[in-house]
Amino acid sequence: MNSVTPASPQRFLTGITTTGTPHLGNFVGSIRPSVAASRLPGVQSFYFLADYHALIKCGDPARIQRSTLEIAASWLAAGLDPERVVFYRQSDVPEIPELTWLLTCVTSKGVLNRAHAYKASVDKNNAAGNDPDADVTAGLFMYPVLMGADILLFKSHKVPVGRDQIQHIEMARDMAQRFNHLYGEHLVLPEAVIEESVALLPGLDGRKMSKSYDNTIPLFAPREQLRKLIGGILTDSRAPGEAKDTEGSALFQIYQAFASEAETAALRQAYADGIAWGDAKQTLFERIDREVAPMREQYEALMANPARIEELLQAGAIKARQVATPFMAELRRAVGLRNLATSAAPAAKAKAVKMAAPTFKQYREKDGQFYFKLLDADAKLLLQSQGFESPKEAALTIKRLQTEGSAALAALHDKLALAPGVDIGEVDAALKLFTPTETKT
Ligand code: TRP
Q1: Looking at ligand 1, which atom is closest to the CA of residue 147?
Q2: What is the pLDDT of residues 4-19, one digit of tens each?
Q3: Which one of 30, 53, 99, 146 would you pick to mutate in the ligand 1 pocket, going by the greatest count of ligand atoms within 8 A of its CB?
Q4: Distance of CA 307 from the midpoint of ligand 1 (Å)
Q5: What pLDDT score does 344 carry?
Q6: Over the range 203-228, which residues count as b (16 or more CB within 10 Å of their CB) and which as e?
Q7: How far apart are CA 62 and CA 70, in angstroms?
Q8: 144 in ligand 1 pocket by Cβ < 6 Å?
Q9: What are the strands of the beta sheet with 10-17, ordered from one edge?
Q10: Ligand 1 touching residue 158 (CB < 6 A)
C-alpha cells in the first residue's frame, strides 16, 4: 500500500524552460554540473525540456520549437547520455497535466498568491497603478502546480535548481504532504539541491550573464563570433604593462569557470605583470574554444538532424511513461477516479476535501472571558489564546497576527500559547496565508 518505500537509487530531476538559446552561463551553472551528476553511480536522473512552462512566458511558437531543439542539442552535445538518463520533453507525458489537476485541487489559492513570479507581477502592477492582475495569465498563477507535478510524478528525491526556484520546491513538498494526508502515502517529498560552489557567471557587461540583460555569449556561437563577443567583454582602461585587478574582472571570472587551478594561477600572475587586455581576451577565447570546439561540432551535427533528436525524445518519453503511467493509475485510484465495476470501496472514511485554509475561532468560556484559537487547514490546533476581558481585545489581537504574521508572536507571548507538538514554522506558514508578507530572499 505504501508506494513510497525509498526506491534504492536516488532520483534527481530537473527541467529547463524552452524559451532561449543556451549561453555560457547556462553551461557553467546548469548543463555541465547536471551532466556530471548524471554519471554518478547510484543516481537515476530525469532531465526534461519544460515546454509547457515555456508557453507561460512565450507566445512565439517558432521560438519555442527552435529553443526546444537548441536546448536538447546542447545537452546531448555536452555529453548527456540518453541511455543513462531519462531525457524527455514535458509535453510528451500527458500524465504531467493530469497530475497537475489533482494537485490543483489540494493547493490553496493563498499559497499561490505568494509565489514569487506571480507576486512580482502583482507588485509591478501595483507600483504602476494598474489592476493588480493586469496581464497576469492563470498560467503564470498556476506555474508552481505544474512544476509540482513535474517533480512529484517521478517520485524525485533531489531537484537541482537555481536559488530562484527554491520556493517552488517547497511548494511541491507542501502539495505532496497535503495529498498524502488526504489520500495516503503516495508522493515522495522532494528536496532542492543548490549548487553552492558555482558562482554566477558574469556577462559581457559584468552583470550576471542573462538573457534579460542581453549580455550573453551563446554556448555554441560559431568560432569567429565567439572571438568577437569575447573581444567585447567590458574591461577597465589600464594600458599594457600596467598591473590589472582580478577582483571584479568579468574576463577573469569567466576564465576561472573554464580553467584548471594552475591555468587560473597563471592568468592571475599575468594580470599582475600587466598583460594587455587584448592578450587576456585572446587567452580566454582560446581556453573556452578548446573546451567548446568538440562539443560545437557535435551540436552542429545534431542541429542538422532534428529528426534524430525527435527520435531520442520519443524514446525518452516512452521510458518516462513507463514510470508515469502506472503511478498515475495508482493516484487516480487513490483519489476515487475508479473503475465502477471493481468492488465499491467500503464507505470511505477518507476525510472530505475541504479547502485548505487556516482559521481563527473566537469563543467565550464559562469564566466569562473571551478566547480565540488558530487552527490549520486540517483543523489542527496551532495557537491558543489566554482569556481577554472583551471580544474587541481578542479581535484586535487576531487582527495583529493577521497583519504582522509571526513577527508579532514575540510581543504577544504572554497572550498566546503554542499548542503541544506544534512547530513555530507551522504557525508561521498558517499566518502567512492571511497576510501578503514581503518576499523573503
Ligand atoms: N521552473 C524551472 C526554471 O525556470 C524549470 C522547471 C520546470 C523545473 N519544471 C521543473 C525545474 C521541475 C526543476 C524541476 O528554471
Answers
A1: 9
A2: 444 468 999 999 999 9
A3: 53
A4: 25
A5: 64
A6: bbebeebbeeeebbbbbbbeeeebbe
A7: 12
A8: no
A9: 86-89, 43-50, 10-17, 158-161, 191-194
A10: no
- Ligand 1 centroid to Cα of residue 147, in Å, is 6
The predicted pLDDT at position 440 comes to 45
Report d(CA 186, CA 353) in Å as an integer.
17
Q: Where in the sequence of the chain do the CATH 1.10.240.10 domains occur?
A: 223-303
Instruction: Please work out whether the CB of residue 115 comes within 6 Å of at least one atom of ligand 1.
Output: no
Residues 133 and 381: their CA atoms lie apart, in Å, by 34
Residue minimizing CA distance to atom 11 of ligand 1: 15
Residue 355: pLDDT over 80: no
pTM: 0.76
Digit-coded pLDDT (tens) for 124-161: 999 999 999 999 999 999 999 999 999 999 999 999 88
- Pocket test of ligand 1: the residue of 156, 165, 194 to mutate, having most ligand atoms within 8 Å of its CB, is 165
CATH topology of domain 10-198+305-309: Rossmann fold (3.40.50)
Looking at the chain, the domain(s) classified CATH 3.40.50.620 span 10-198+305-309
**Please, which residues bridge with residue 418 across strands?**
383
User: 165 CB less than 6 Å from ligand 1?
Assistant: yes
Tell me if the domain spanning 223-303 has CATH number 1.10.240.10.
Answer: yes
Residues in the chain: 441
Average pLDDT, the chain: 91
Q: How far apart are CA 48 and CA 253, in angstroms?
A: 29
* Centroid of ligand 1 to alpha carbon of 161 (angstroms): 7
